[in-house]
Every structure is written in structure tokens, then in C-alpha cells.
Write a structure and sequence with these properties.
The structure is a homodimer.
Chain A: H1 3-15, E1 26-28, E2 35-37, E3 43-53, H2 65-82, E4 86-97, H3 102-118, E5 122-131, E6 136-146, E7 161-164, H4 170-179, H5 187-197, H6 203-212, E8 215-220, H7 225-236, E9 239-243, H8 251-260, H9 264-270, E10 277-281, H10 286-297, E11 302-308, E12 313-317, E13 320-323
């Protein structure tokens, strides 16, 4: 059955049941002119939105619909995580080409609903329409945070310790396998593919960092560590110095780089779509925060460098200091992103 | 210059200055992982979103970018109006094909910012990316409303008076001119085109109705009066009876229908994209509400029929009662919507 056979309203009736995951605080779910819900007392609302376009961000025949739905929601949850917030309500707009099977669209929702359930997020509305050729998904997520716990990109100070909440580079390695149709013939490669297809938003980690009171700036790693750190540095009027030897590089990425002769540090610095968080921490509190993080999450908050007053983006590797270019995703300067 | 020449971040820097229209209550505008803002004390948040796809909802070469930007925002503001709410923050996702001129995209924002300024709405974020072929715009709007003043689709009761806040059918007439490349050779036809391109969201009217305490159900007319009234009737478990003689049909639409031999009542019932509000009102309060509306807006709240307990959708015309079909927009059952 194709999507157009049941139409917009038929489809909404099919999917709306599973979308209300946390009814408390919801005044109107899917089905009216707008959704209505409360923002918890004393908190500010956070809103982020991401648009995924077939052929630019994903290939329909190279991505399972569940993975696509997972990722479309996960990238937005990651933005809420980077603000130190709690994700609460999601809105899904989807434009479906005439040749797209109903089962594929339902699979997208299955992937989203599964992830939404994990993080207590409701799907409260959106828009469903046709498209001439490409499948388009826009997800907007509303979160909430106490203003004093909100994490901004700016606000870093010289001497702040620079941390990341997880390994970087795995997603880019997964994308390399996908793009070059290389077989995922080991657990390591399967996990790299999974890092690319099903990133885990670091919402609990973001809440922890926001509540710590010691984090001065934070961002999620979507465009690539080096690109995203440029945003933090610019917003704070500072430079960044990364210690290459401290970058968290997974065993899977090491295996991958050995096999294909790639430089793992390069993958870690410029790989995009990791969706871990980077943050700068008051150096007098950094050790305590890192220790509490380890106790809570059972892996380190990785200390990868520091913020500097010189305005330069540098990486120290083998005693040598070199500038790093913000080489990550560029939607318009690369003609083909995938 | 083409859009890809300045890239996503260059474009954001160009447009962000004009986007903060009402700084009060905004904690973080465009530029961080998410926008942050307050929802006024004691009010619930409203969110609505609409996705516009080139070739389905608009033709790039048949629409000025300012009109496209105006409409993309207006259709969302209209949904907030239909809830009785105040529109506050907008989020704009846009996917731009490589051949799209930067000037066109800037024109879209000009149209949005102009309308946003009229209604005190901020543009606080969004996403900007590439597209293989079609221009895609998704707008999400956050509003707020006191829960006791919120207008739902359900909640109508048998005997409720049915009103609309303005003329219906003009937008469809404008679309007919556009589709058939007919010259807009009179003020009447220019105004019909304008009704199609630059609908005015009835936000003040929606607030008035919400505060009246007499409105039991409301919806905005986007799919067409008959289609949208089916939503109200279904949500309330009722029927609708429309008095054709009372439909507000503009002089412009009458002129248009005389010229081309169309039935103005048919245009009024099944035309889409009028973006006026329809509401059902407690019959004991209807006269007072209509009188106050006239005093405030200097034109009638048009009394077009009533809600019935028989579950039927009927129109009375020339003493005859006939069922009306929900003939409005259908994104998937029509292969070509434009």
C-alpha cells in the first residue's frame, strides 16, 4: 500500500495512539489546530528543529525507516541535551513522495516512537503532506530547563578545562562504510554503523552537566568536534587547544583506521554526527565534576584540552602544535554530502 | 549570488538581526543549540507546524519570495489564532536547492519578518540546509494561552450557533486565476490574488473569541469551510447545518463568479486557504458576542448556521436541504495540488 492510499487524515489516525508517551502536562495532543501543554513552573522553554532531506542527509534505500526515524528525533534531543534541558514534546513534519510505501513511513514513526519512549518525550503534532520526489522530515522538539542550569555556547573562560562526554569519530567511520558499500563484517564495524544510524542523545549527561553549576559552555558534536568547538570559541571570544593524545577514540575506530590506513585523530577531530557533548568547565571544579560524572555514568568525562585566550584553534600531537581547520559537515560547499 | 556561496552560517549571520522582534521573555535567540524563552506565567504553550513543498504547495516561479515567506508564517499564526492564543516565537527550517538565488531566500525571510513584526512574533531559530531539487520550508510557531480561554475543535453542542470571522472562497478564486494564468486585470482580481498569497491570520479575532467565554469550538479554515467543519462536527459528535444565503461572499468573489460562470456558494463552501476562523457559540450568548465583535472589528461575525444532533452535514439553499461533501484540499488523493 502506498502512503497516498490512506491520505493525511487516515495516516494521522493510524499513528496517533502511540505518540502520547507522557500524558501529564499535555492539554491537547495530536488532532487540533495546535498542541497545548504546560512548561514546568519556573523553567524556560527550549526549542530546536532539524530538517532532513533525502539525498542530502540520508539515502532512502540505504537506511532502514526505523533508523531514519530514530536519527531524525535523536539529533534534536541532542540539541536539548546540549542546553542542559529535559526533552518533552516533539513535532514531526513529513513530506512523502507518491512512490513511498506506507510501511516505510510507518517504520519512521516506529523508530521515533521507540526513542521517544526511552526519554519520556511525546509526539504531539506535526504536518503530513506530499512531495514531488524527495522524502523530507522536519522534527521540532520542545524542552525545558531551569534558567540557572541552562548551558550556552558562549561563556567559556580562558583556562577552562575542555571535556567531551563520549567517543568521537565513530559515526564518520560508519558513514565511510555506508558510502563505499563496505561489508560490516565484524562486531566492530556493525557498531560503527550503529553509531552513525542510531546515535544516543546525551540527555542525562547534559542534565548532569547543567546541574553541576561548574559548566560554562556546552555544545553537541553534530558538525564534527573541530567545527563545533569553533562555535564555542567564537561565541566566547577565545581559542581552543586540544591534546590529541587525550581524545577518546573507541577500539572500534582504531580497528577501522588500522584496516583502511586512516588517521584516527583526524577522524575524531573532523568526524560529524557523534552527538556527544563538549563542554568547558571551571578548572577549580573540573576534577570534582569528572569524578562525579564517572560515579554516575561509569565511564570518564574525557578531558581533551583547554580554552585559551589567544583565539587560536590548535591541536598538540607528539609535542608539535598545529592549527586545526574546522573540517566537518558543510551542507552547501559540498555538492554531495552523502 | 547563489545560496550555497555563503553557506548556512553565513546566511544565518545575514538574517538573524531582524528576527528578534520582541526581546522581552527571550533568553536565547538564534545561534545556540536551541532557543530559550519563557511561556508567560499561568499559560499553556501552543505549538503548530506546517511544511510547504515546492510543486505541491507553491510554484517558485509563480510566487514572489515575500509572498511565500508571508504565507509560510501566516498559516501557522492562523492555527494559533484558532486556539484563541497569542503567537510568540517562530522557527523556520528551509532546504534550498543549489540553483536557488540568495536573493530569493532573503526575500522569503523579508516576507516572514514583515508579518512577524505585525504580530509581535520572534523568529528564534530553525535549520538551513541543502536540497536536491525542491525548495522546502517548514515553520513551527509557539504560542501561549490561558487554559480557560483555549479554543478546541471538539466541545460544540447541538443548537450552537455557527459563525465565521470573514469571507470565504476568495483564496480559491485567486488560485484559479494563478493556475490558469488569467490576468489580474481589475482591483477585484488583484484582491483575490492577494487573498491567496497574503492571507491575514485572525489572531486578534481568535483572542476575542477565546476571551468571550461563549465559544465552544473553533477551527481555522485551511482545507475549505466544508472540510474543516467536518473536523469540528466529528470532534464534537454532531452535525452541521449551513444556511447558504448567510455565507459571507465578497463582492470580489461575486464579480469573479459572474465573469467565469462559477457558483459562488460552491466556492465559499469548498475553497481552501481562507484562514478565517469558524466557531460555534452558546446560543444564549451568540447575539451579545456578535454585537461585541462588530463593535471591536467593524464588520460582522457572520452567523452561517448551527450545530445539529443528527450527525449530518447539510446546507440549506433556496428552501432545499442537501448534504455537502467535504471537498477541499487533499494532499494525496489529488496527484497535483497546484
Amino acid at each position: 500500500m502506498e502512503f497516498k492510499d490512506i491520505g493525511e487524515f487516515g495516516f494521522i489516525r493510524r499513528i496517533q495512539r502511540g505518540c502520547l508517551i507522557r500524558p501529564e502536562g499535555v492539554r491537547l495532543p495530536i488532532g487540533d489546530d495546535a498542541a497545548a501543554f504546560i512548561v514546568p513552573d519556573g523553567q524556560v522553554a527550549l526549542v530546536t528543529t532539524d530538517l532532513l532531506v533525502e539525498g542530502v542527509h540520508f539515502l532512502r534505500n540505504g537506511t532502514s525507516p526505523e533508523d531514519l526515524g530514530h536519527k531524525a528525533l535523536a539529533v534534536n534531543l541532542s540539541d536539548i541535551a546540549a542546553m542542559g534541558g529535559t526533552a518533552r514534546e516533539a513535532f514531526v513534519s513529513i513530506a512523502v513522495p507518491g512512490d513511498c510505501a506506507l510501511a516505510y513511513v510507518e517504520g519512521i514513526y516506529r523508530g521515533m516512537i521507540s526513542l521517544a519512549g526511552e526519554f519520556g518525550v511525546n509526539i504531539l503534532g506535526g504536518d503530513t503532506t506530499g512531495s514531488r520526489s524527495d522524502l523530507i522530515i522536519n522534527v521540532a522538539v520542545v524542552g525545558a530547563v531551569h534558567e540557572r542550569e541552562m548551558l550556552r555556547r558562549g561563556g567559556a573562560r580562558p583556562g577552562d578545562c575542555l571535556f567531551v562526554t563520549g567517543a568521537v569519530g565513530d559515526s564518520r567511520a560508519g558513514l565511510h562504510l555506508l558510502r563505499n558499500r563496505l561489508p560490516a563484517d565484524s562486531d566492530a564495524f556493525m557498531e560503527l554503523l550503529s553509531a552513525h544510524h542510531r546515535p544516543r542523545p546525551h540527555l542525562a549527561e547534559g542534565r548532569f552537566l547543567g546541574k553541576s553549576g561548574a559548566v560554562r559552555a556546552a555544545i553537541d558534536i553534530s558538525d564534527g568536534l573541530s567545527s563545533d568547538l569553533v562555535h564555542v570559541a567564537r561565541a566566547s571570544g577565545l581559542g581552543v587547544r586540544i591534546d590529541a593524545g587525550r581524545l577518546p577514540i573507541s577500539e572500534n575506530l582504531k580497528t577501522f583506521c588500522r584496516r583502511f590506513g586512516f588517521d584516527a585523530v583526524d577522524y575524531a577531530l573532523s568526524g560529524g554526527e557523534d552527538y556527544v557533548l563538549a563542554c568547558t568547565v571551571d578548572p577549580t571544579k573540573a576534577a570534582a565534576v569528572a569524578q562525579a560524572f564517572m560515579a554516575r555514568f561509569h565511564h570518564p568525562l574525557y578531558h581533551i584540552g583547554k580554552m585559551t585566550s589567544d583565539g587560536r584553534m590548535t591541536v598538540v600531537q607528539g609535542g608539535e602544535v598545529r592549527p586545526f581547520p574546522p573540517a566537518g559537515w558543510r551542507h552547501f560547499s559540498e555538492t554531495e554530502e552523502l
